[in-house]
Specification:
The chain is of the alpha/beta class. It is built from 12 helices and 10 strands. A hairpin with a 2-residue loop joins strand 6 and strand 7.
């Protein structure tokens, strides 16, 4: 037993593929009950979660951030623009899917992290470093990209000290949810990141980074992330991936049936909503990418239309912003730095021009007025 520390040190030196170290005298998290929830409806909300506390007349502000790959630079710009304009609500619930999960975490932490989030997208080769391609890996392995650079990036930008701040939101009754998909059962898994952060252990923060890795593990692009332990569906091994194709964004509209307060949803869509009509090359990769893009956009439009239809009869409002239709379309899985910077600037302008957001659902005139910070 006296050799345990030295054995751990040797284990931690086994390679760069293990950036999240095992630590003695700490118990790993293998019971996920109360930390994640399985839903078969992307508009649902886990019944066992306590809702945010609202004072009389307050609005429940919800922010949902979509998938989009490197187009997440658009969402980062939107958040920065909203903050600089002084029009960013203090969201009680923030959700994210795929790259939107990373954005959601920083959106939840507040405007003081806007510049930090900008750096992730705008620092030269920051995102590109996470895309180490290998034809051999693509042919014989489980993905086109190696997960090792991405793990390093998450460790670099999400240290324990930063993740500890998520507890403040938990104590205030706010919630941060991110989504993955269990590829075995093809079900949406919603992770309560604030509940995990409240455990305040190094293993809890490792688990958050692991979950975020799964949220952006696009099938075929990155390998699935393995989780073992007690899940709501039983004790088993599960493989989780990016939920973006199943659910472009997560907006728990069912909450409108559970609260008496007005419900306002802001949706940041890191994509265009109409298919790209340019001619595609008759090659395997371009055809596959175009097919995935078309599927993602169809999913986003369907979810958005469904959300609008459900909210029309509620005491609710919905605003959304998306990448404009005439924007040069580039694959979100290849990280072109110039394109990322230009898309980020586009998002920043959208944040500054909050009045230009689409508003398909508005509050009824008989409803209580919205807080000025939410306009």
């Amino acid at each position: 037993m006296n050799d345990m520390p030295s054995l751990l040190k040797r284990f931690n030196r086994l390679g760069t593929d293990l950036p999240w170290k095992f630590q003695p005298n700490k118990r790993p998290i293998n019971d996920f009950n109360g930390l994640c929830y399985y839903l078969d409806d992307p508009l649902a909300f886990p019944e066992s979660i306590n809702l945010p506390c609202l004072n009389g007349g307050d609005v429940l502000n919800v922010l949902a951030i979509s998938s989009g790959g490197c187009d997440g630079a658009y969402g980062a710009g939107v958040l920065k623009g909203l903050s600089d304009k002084g029009m960013r609500p203090d969201y009680q619930i923030v959700t994210g899917v795929s790259i939107g999960s990373i954005l959601a975490l920083f959106a939840f932490l507040g405007p003081k992290y806007d510049d930090y989030l900008q750096k992730i997208f705008l620092e030269k080769n920051s995102l590109k470093s996470a895309t180490s391609r290998s034809l051999l890996r693509f042919v014989s392995g489980s993905s086109f990209y190696s997960p090792t650079p991405l793990k390093k990036l998450l460790t670099q930008y999400l240290p324990n000290e930063l993740l500890k701040e998520l507890k403040n939101g938990q104590r205030a009754g706010r919630k941060l949810f991110v989504c993955t998909m269990d590829i075995s059962d093809y079900m949406l898994c919603v992770w309560d990141i604030t509940a995990i952060a409240a455990l305040d252990t190094s293993y809890a923060y490792d688990l958050i980074r692991k979950i975020l890795l799964a949220t952006i593990a696009f099938p075929g692009g990155y390998p699935p992330v393995n989780f073992q332990g007690h899940f709501p569906q039983g004790c088993n091994k599960q493989l989780h991936v990016d939920a973006g194709i199943y659910c472009g964004f997560y907006l728990p509209i069912v909450l409108t049936d559970q609260i008496s307060a007005p419900f306002q949803a802001d949706v940041i869509i890191n994509n265009q909503l109409r298919p790209d009509k340019s001619i595609v090359k008759t090659q395997l990769l371009p055809i596959a990418i175009r097919s995935i893009n078309a599927l993602s956009k169809t999913n986003l439009r369907f979810l958005l239309d469904l959300s609008v239809e459900k909210l029309k009869t509620k005491n609710a409002a919905l605003y959304y912003t998306s990448i404009k239709e005439d924007w040069p379309n580039k694959s979100a899985i290849f990280f072109d730095q110039k394109y990322i910077e230009e898309t980020n600037s586009l998002g920043y302008c959208a944040g500054l021009e909050r009045s230009g957001w689409e508003n398909p659902v508005s509050f009824d005139l008989t409803c209580p007025p919205i807080n000025s910070s939410s306009l």
